[in-house]
Structures are given as structure tokens and as C-alpha cells.
Design goal:
By secondary structure, the protein is α+β, with helices and mostly antiparallel strands. Helix content is 21%, strand content 34%. The longest helix is centred in the first third of the chain and has 22 residues. Its EC number is 3.1.2.-.
């Protein structure tokens, strides 16, 4: 399948005193996009467990251009990378009129009742593998 694309509405309250969307709010907008993939889309495909426990272990974000409220929405393209037994990375590219940021989150499935990380189930791995970016084969010449 490749990239999953989510459209996230910007709110007036996302702006800061400088007239652009605050850096911390940008991370929240990425979170909303990620929830659309991991919870809403997963549920549409019959996968309910991801909404019961998934935590961010690391977030890295690079800002490329100011995100202005006038854009009204943010398009977030996400793909899965480094799918392991108990973690995976989501890569993000967020666009308004242009690419405004790229980011990654290290995600860890979490057992809320036990209070500890858990392994991905086979169904979760299958769902996530559908969103892996296609790897290009190195050219041999």
C-alpha cells in the first residue's frame, strides 16, 4: 500500500504569538494523523487491539517552513519503517502549501494492565507491513 495519508484540520488555537502554528501543536497534529492510522484505519480493517495500548518512545521532528493557520489543514503522509517484534517507526511528511516538517516516532505496543511493553501481534504486524514504504533495490551496474 505504501503511504497512509491523513488530513488534519488546523484550529485557531494552534497559532502562537508569531502568527504560525506553534511547534508543540505541530506534534499534536501529527499525533492526530497517527491516531487516524493506528486506531481508525486499523479498526476499519478489523484490528481493535492497537487502540488498547500504543506509546511513543521517541519523537524527532525537523521543521522546514512555518505552518500558517490560513492553510486550514495539514496533509500528513505516513509510512512504517523498522518493523520489529516490539516496536516500529512511523515516518511523517506534513504538507500545507509546501512540506512544513518531517518527523519520526518510535512506537511501542504497550500492555496497560501489566504496565509494560508487549510484542506486536501477528495481525498488527500484517496491518503495519501494509504501510511500509517500498524499498528500492540498489542498482547493479
Amino acid at each position: 500500500m505504501g503511504a497512509y495519508v491523513a488530513e488534519v484540520a488546523l484550529r485557531w488555537s494552534d497559532m502562537d504569538a508569531f502568527g504560525h502554528v506553534n511547534h508543540a501543536r505541530t506534534i499534536t497534529l501529527l499525533e492526530e494523523a497517527r491516531a487516524d492510522l493506528l486506531f481508525t484505519e486499523a479498526e476499519k480493517q478489523g484490528l481493535l487491539g492497537m487502540a488498547e495500548g500504543m506509546v511513543v518512545a521517541r519523537v524527532v521532528i525537523d521543521y522546514h517552513a512555518p505552518l500558517m493557520y490560513a492553510a486550514k489543514s495539514l496533509q500528513v503522509r505516513m509510512s512504517v519503517r523498522e518493523l520489529k517484534a516490539a516496536s516500529f517507526i512511523i515516518d511523517y511528511t506534513a504538507f500545507a502549501r509546501e512540506a512544513v516538517c518531517t518527523a519520526e516516532t518510535l512506537m511501542v505496543p504497550y500492555d496497560l494492565r501489566a504496565g509494560r511493553p508487549r510484542r506486536l501481534t501477528a495481525d498488527e504486524r500484517e496491518f503495519l507491513s501494509g504501510w511500509q514504504a517500498e524499498q528500492l533495490e540498489p542498482s547493479r551496474g
